[in-house]
Amino acid sequence: MLIKPKTTTTSRSLRMQPYQDRQCFFENERYLRFFRIYNQHNCIQECMVNFTYNLCGCVKFSMPRSADMRECDASEIGCYSGAYLKMYAQQIGKNISNPCGCLPACMSLSYDVEISSTPMDIGSYVRALGFQHENLSQLAASHFAISIRDKWILPKIRQELMGVGDMVGSLGGLFGLMMGASLLSLLEIVYFCLIRPFRNEKHAPKVRQMIPWQNAFR
User: Is beta strand 147-148 parallel, antiparallel or unpaired with respect to 108-114?
Assistant: First the structure.
């Protein structure tokens, strides 16, 4: 068996964005009654429990339930067996990929599993280990091995496509390309139009006092 871990993280700056835009839930954004940790699988399972209980008045024995929820008996197998299909049938026309509004978790760790099998020569295996056994035909052995497929894990990160800093940088680049100007040029225009005139009026009397000979030519 080969296992390939997959991890997904989300930038903390996206907490300020609504979940409809980032399409995921952080661990403390959606409460689950039967699970402490939020993920999409737990959310769908709890939704299935609530739907089955509302439809049949009981839940399947393997489902998580509270003390006030009754366990279905044999006569109600058909009810809870068809509840799964009925729940997804009600999602047609809505978002079938996210039943009950169960979005993926913003922080998640999952595994891709590849299973393979080959016949095992028990005789050669026992002799390779250094054991001597006469009745090898009576042995029925199997070997189960689990290994990580890749040495490194490449995580997926959700983040803003363009933040405030990226937008300012893009606008500055467009000004520089189209007008030969930059954000500093805009600041200079603001300075000369709004700040510089007041500074000139403030310092003008002091300049006249420092140059008294100008008054003689008036």
Answer: unpaired
Residue 42: count of CB within 10 angstroms of its CB: 17
State both tokens at 190: 């603001």
Put simply, whether the predicted model's pTM sits higher than 0.85 gets the answer no
Instruction: Assign 5 to helix, strand or coil.
Output: strand
Per-position DSSP letters for 72-119, written without gaps between them: P-GGGHHHHHHHHHHHHHTTTTS-TTSGGG-PPBSSEEEEEEE-----
- How far is CA 69 from each of CA 47, 52, 66, 135, 188, rounded to the nearest angstrom? 14, 11, 6, 55, 71
Mean pLDDT, consecutive 10-residue segments, the chain of 218 residues? 86 82 84 88 90 90 88 87 79 62 85 82 73 65 80 81 70 66 72 75 53 48
